[in-house]
Each structure stands twice: as structure tokens, then as C-alpha cells.
């Protein structure tokens, strides 16, 4: 029996990936990188202050009024749209809201587009080093609102939520009444306001009004602070960058 001749030809495996595959892979990688970069830029842009450089309320025609229960209203006569803002002076998300939309809101007030009702509450007292910082901030707001004009109050309110002034939750220290008084003074408040803050004269009223504000917030349908309502309807003020720009 003759033996079959064995072939000596070697099988050489071919590369699975060719040049076209590498090019397509490179393009896909570049696309992914671009998408990530654009997403980061978009997110950074969405958190940027709106109307940056405008500052706080400056129009002398804006009036400050106190409708009751500790609410502070800033508006030019005839403003048609009503915005209610519920905030705690220690709330980091409230600070984010003020940083992003505070200047935009001030301009809308100055232009007579909106009337704004500020409701300060005290949810976060237990998270402050003193145990009552949020309440004392409400009291300070009462003192400024009772003695000053809309421009001074707006400047004080903006300073209260500034990240350089606002205490952190669970921090080892917060702000004293003397520091709250100094903030009022630097915002243009008179000695009448600063003495009211330093003495704690409005503290009892602040407790009552903050509790009323908490009840009103719960009844509004908002889930917490910051709670923002436009003409009585809750809006997603942190998630929707255009909520204020769309109000005319």
C-alpha cells in the first residue's frame, strides 16, 4: 500500500483586523471622546450663573413689602407674574439656585416682569453647629426687611446664600449674630437693622414664621428646599435652566 503524500504547505492565519477596521475603530474612539467633552462642557455651562455681572436688585422703583408670616416681597408696581421662593439659609441647593438664577431674578424684578415672595424656613437648624443658625438667619432677614428698602434687602439676601458666607451642613462652626449683622451692614443696612440682628430681637417671630413657611411649602406640592412656584405652580428650578428666562 502506498503511503499518501503529506502536504508540507503551512497554514498561515490571516489577521482578523485589517486597516479599515483600525480606521473605523479610531473614528469611533474620537466620536466617544467628543461626546464626553461636549457633555462636560454642557453640564458646566448649565451650572454657570445666568446674567452674570448683573448683581442684585438696583432699580429704585422696586418696592419691598411685608404681606405677613415673615414673607418678604420685592416687586415694581404692576408686576403680573408671581414667584414664590422657599429657602433655608444653610441649604446647599438653595445656594446653587441663588448662584445660578439670583442675578437673572434680580433683573426680572428690576424690569417689572415678576413679583417675588421670599419665604425663609429653618429645616436645617439641627445641622448647624449652633443648633439654630437657620432660625437666626430668618430673624436677620426680618430685621433687614423691616427697616430697609428693596435694594438693601436684595443685597443682604444674596450675601446670605453666597458660598463664602453660607455655613456648611454639619460643619464645626456657623455664623454668629454679629457676623449676620456685619453682612447686613456691608449690604447697606442701617444701625437700626444691625442692632436688631445683634440683639436677636426677631428670634421668636422668626420661629413662628419659619414654621408657617414650612407648612406653606408642604401644602404647595414642592418636595423641599429650594421650592419655587410660578403663579402657584411648582417648577423644577434646579433642573430646568430656562424656567426663569421663559417668564415674560
TrEMBL record:
Keyword Transmembrane: yes
Record key words, sorted: Membrane, Transmembrane, Transmembrane helix
Signal peptide boundaries: none
Residues passing through the membrane, by range: 20-42
Keyword field contains S-adenosyl-L-methionine: no
Span of domain Thioredoxin-like fold: 77-247
InterPro entries from the UniProt entry: Thioredoxin-like_fold, Thioredoxin-like_sf
Name listed for the protein in its UniProt record: DsbA family protein
Organism: Rhodococcoides yunnanense
Lineage: Bacteria, Bacillati, Actinomycetota, Actinomycetes, Mycobacteriales
Amino acid at each position: 500500500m502506498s503511503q499518501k503524500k503529506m502536504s508540507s504547505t503551512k497554514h498561515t492565519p490571516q489577521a482578523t483586523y485589517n486597516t479599515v477596521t483600525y480606521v473605523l475603530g479610531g473614528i469611533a474612539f474620537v466620536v466617544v471622546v467628543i461626546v464626553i467633552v461636549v457633555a462636560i462642557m454642557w453640564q458646566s455651562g448649565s451650572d454657570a450663573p445666568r446674567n452674570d455681572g448683573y448683581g442684585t436688585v438696583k432699580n429704585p422703583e422696586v418696592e419691598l413689602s411685608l404681606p405677613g408670616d415673615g414673607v418678604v416681597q420685592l416687586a415694581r408696581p404692576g408686576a403680573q407674574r408671581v414667584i414664590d421662593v422657599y429657602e433655608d439659609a444653610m441649604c446647599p441647593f438653595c445656594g446653587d439656585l441663588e448662584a445660578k438664577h439670583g442675578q437673572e431674578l434680580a433683573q426680572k424684578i428690576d424690569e417689572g416682569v415678576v413679583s417675588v415672595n421670599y419665604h425663609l424656613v429653618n429645616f436645617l437648624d439641627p445641622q448647624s453647629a449652633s443648633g439654630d443658625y437657620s432660625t437666626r438667619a430668618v430673624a436677620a432677614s426680618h430685621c433687614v426687611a423691616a427697616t430697609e428698602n428693596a435694594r438693601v434687602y436684595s443685597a443682604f439676601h444674596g450675601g446670605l446664600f453666597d458660598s463664602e458666607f453660607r455655613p456648611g451642613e454639619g460643619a464645626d462652626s456657623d455664623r454668629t449674630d454679629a457676623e449676620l449683622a456685619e453682612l447686613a451692614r456691608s449690604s447697606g443696612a442701617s444701625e437700626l437693622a444691625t442692632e436688631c440682628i445683634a440683639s436677636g430681637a426677631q428670634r421668636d417671630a422668626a420661629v413662628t414664621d419659619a414654621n408657617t413657611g414650612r407648612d406653606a411649602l408642604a401644602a404647595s406640592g414642592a418636595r423641599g428646599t429650594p421650592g419655587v412656584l410660578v403663579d402657584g405652580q411648582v417648577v423644577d428650578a434646579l433642573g430646568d435652566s430656562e424656567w426663569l428666562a421663559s417668564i415674560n
